[in-house]
Amino acid sequence: MKFSRSTVVTLAVIFLINFFTISLVEAHDGFGDFPYEGTYLTDENQAIRGFTFDTESQSITILTQQSSQNEDIRRLLEIRNSGNHTALIDPFISAEEVNDMREKWGLDDIDYSKILLEAADKVEPWMTRKDALRLAFQEIPGVHSLSDIDSDFNSDILISKPEILQSQDLWIVGIMGDPRILRFEMNESTDSITDEYGIVYTLEEGNQNE
Question: Which pTM does this prediction carry?
Answer without folding.
Answer: 0.75
